[in-house]
Amino acid sequence: MAKVEIKSDEIGPALDRLATQLSDLTPYYNIAGEIILDSTVQRFKQGVAPDGTPWAPKSESTIRRYKSMVPAHHDVRPLFGPNGKLHSSINYSASAEGLEWGPGIQTRDYAATMQFGAAKGAFGRTKFNGPIPWGDIPARPYLGLSAEDETNLIEELRDWLSGATTSA
Questions:
Q1: So where are the chain's domains?
Q2: What is the mean pLDDT of each run of 10 residues along the chain (168 residues)?
């Protein structure tokens, strides 16, 4: 086995900075969280899944029901309900161990139903014996990474890592 010893005024300190930076990835995960959050919000506005597929439109019965609950509600875009909680609750949490993003705790059940879909009655019945949900709900995936997200995340990682190796 060969042994290589590097004696350089630039390489040694650059490797030390890189090792220090890699010991806590929180700063990168915060950058990544902002990228993913922005992308998810943009997809909401466009009404598309991470792969670019348009979401199924709201059914007429859903539109009627929302209007009966909130007469001023006229937003027919999928995933935009009368209270707006789903799209406004998307957030992320970065730490040294990784990045998590998704809906707020108060909307997780609803969010999962929208992400994966559900059949009429899949969650049981109401106290008045009505099905939960009251009709079939098509999957409308909104969480996930697009090809552009992956490219942006890799580019940002390269920039972040190169910042550690340039002299301060």
A1: 11-160
A2: 69 71 85 94 92 91 80 74 81 92 85 92 91 90 94 92 69
